[in-house]
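Consider the tokenized backbone below.
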């Protein structure tokens, strides 16, 4: 089957103190046209695609191990239907020429670069049974501004000017044709918002006012709770008379009141997955270094836009084509040199120094399984990064189909990676688990750190025997220096004499010999 791959992430609000954090959710769909959608098993899709997130909002072909007849239907096909075994998912669209098929670090580079103008449209929609309008249109319009603390400024900064939000606009409030309850369905005993229906109805209500031509995304704002989550990813609907698939976010009031969760959902729209830390639990919102993990903790605050977003990790920025190639440095798996360089913080817009270091490990037969470690510097400075946990080099492990896990040197790892173990500071040293690489932070600079990276010490294949020196014997006379020339050839050994035979002839008296024989 061929169609447009749609990924939709559900993100709950931050848990109240003493409460367990609700879990995220990821849904995957193949959209083949109006009313023709097939739900994809996420675990199967991840294995079949390798980097599923790189294919979000793109045309793909999906193959199954068992050939099944697929009837065209106006209803969404169930994930529990007759398509359980996805074998392959590959893109069928063309990537820009600058996109690489394989990185020098051995990992597949299948992401499509996102460059230039990415115009978003905000649609404010209220349920038929809820009259409240929490914010005026001007609030949402100003969110797209280019001043510090606004979305236009934020995305230009984290992309190093590679993207902008030029032409983005806000519209509404529009009244939906149904009450809130009509947009909720019972799925496995839980309420779930019907995202495609919300998108379609909201876009239809705004269609007479809004020019959707050439848009790159739609931010939907609702005046009531959805299903307890905000959502981000993609969806398809008829816009200006044309069936269109695009990036979409769905935000209830608690989400759009703060810029941080809205930027998090827009990140999903750009194809960014969640990040995580290395404590091994099921909570993905425990890495406060990354807006794509914990958008709430250690965030700066704006009087108008609430909590502001931190930067995403450097690897995710690089895979979207935002990091200039000159600022990335790869240390090969077989590196035998000690390297020292300046690592500038990711918040530095213009620099000739390195901002991302990749520690490559041996390539695996399945390139999607190749593990790498990355180094990036973070400094408490600027509009978005001033409230970070500290100034340090942050280490990430890239695995699990492209998920970035911040590395914690503490044992056991902390629940939230804002601890000292997650920060490599001046004088700190760390080695990859296989000890193939070691890293040391030598000193701090005005914009980052001086970092030294070296290889595992080489071991001799045939070590020489250990030299054992005899214990010296004290003597009243000076020790005779040993000659530096080679020792002469060994003489034939003479049998050692014992008893009276060892005495001079004159001393071989009977009483003396008797004593020696005792």
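A designed sequence for it:
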């Amino acid at each position: 089957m061929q169609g447009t791959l749609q990924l939709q992430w559900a993100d709950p609000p931050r848990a109240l103190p003493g409460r367990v954090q609700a879990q995220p959710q990821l849904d995957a769909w193949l959209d083949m046209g109006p009313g023709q959608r097939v739900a994809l098993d996420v675990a199967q899709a991840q294995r079949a695609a390798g980097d599923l997130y790189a294919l979000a909002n793109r045309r793909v072909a999906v193959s199954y191990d068992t050939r099944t007849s697929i009837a065209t239907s106006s209803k969404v096909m169930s994930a529990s239907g007759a398509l359980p075994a996805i074998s392959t998912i590959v893109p069928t669209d063309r990537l820009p020429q600058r996109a690489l098929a394989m990185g020098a670090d051995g990992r597949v580079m299948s992401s499509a670069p996102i460059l230039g103008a990415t115009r978003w449209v905000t649609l404010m929609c209220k349920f038929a049974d809820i009259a409240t309008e929490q914010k005026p249109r001007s609030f949402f319009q100003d969110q797209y501004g280019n001043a510090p603390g606004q979305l236009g400024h934020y995305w230009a900064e984290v992309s190093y000017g590679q993207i902008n939000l030029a032409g983005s606009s806000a519209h509404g409030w529009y009244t939906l044709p149904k009450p809130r309850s009509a947009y909720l369905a019972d799925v496995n005993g839980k309420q779930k918002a019907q995202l495609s229906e919300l998108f379609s109805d909201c876009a239809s209500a705004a269609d007479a006012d809004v020019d959707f031509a050439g848009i790159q995304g739609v931010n939907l704002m609702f005046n009531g709770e959805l299903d307890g989550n905000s959502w981000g990813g993609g969806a398809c609907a008829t816009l200006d008379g044309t069936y269109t698939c695009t990036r979409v976010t769905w935000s209830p009031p608690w989400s759009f009141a703060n810029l941080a969760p809205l930027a998090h959902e827009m990140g999903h729209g750009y194809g960014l997955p969640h990040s995580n830390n290395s404590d091994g639990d099921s909570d993905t919102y425990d890495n406060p270094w990354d807006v794509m993990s914990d958008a709430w903790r250690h965030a700066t605050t704006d009087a108008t836009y609430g909590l502001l977003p931190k930067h995403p990790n450097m690897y995710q920025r690089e895979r979207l084509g935002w990091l200039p190639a000159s600022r990335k440095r790869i240390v090969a798996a077989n590196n035998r040199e000690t390297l020292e360089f300046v690592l500038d913080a990711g918040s530095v817009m213009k620099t000739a120094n390195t901002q991302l270091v990749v520690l490559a490990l041996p390539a695996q037969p399945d390139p999607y399984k190749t593990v790498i470690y990355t180094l990036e510097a973070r400094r408490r400075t600027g509009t978005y990064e001033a409230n970070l946990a500290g100034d340090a080099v942050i280490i990430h492990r890239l695995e699990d189909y492209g998920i970035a896990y911040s590395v914690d040197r503490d044992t056991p790892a902390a629940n939230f990676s804002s601890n000292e173990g997650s920060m490599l500071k001046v004088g700190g040293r760390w080695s990859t688990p296989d000890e193939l690489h070691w890293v040391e932070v030598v000193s701090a600079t005005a914009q980052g750190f001086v970092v030294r990276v070296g290889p595992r010490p080489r071991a001799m294949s045939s070590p020489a025997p250990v030299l054992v020196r005899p214990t010296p014997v004290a003597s009243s006379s000076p020790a005779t220096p040993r000659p530096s020339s080679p020792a002469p050839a060994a003489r034939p050994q003479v049998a050692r004499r014992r008893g009276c035979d060892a005495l001079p002839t004159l001393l071989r008296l009977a009483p003396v010999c008797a004593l020696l024989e005792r």
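Residues 71-81, 97-102, 473-495 have pLDDT under 50 and may be disordered.
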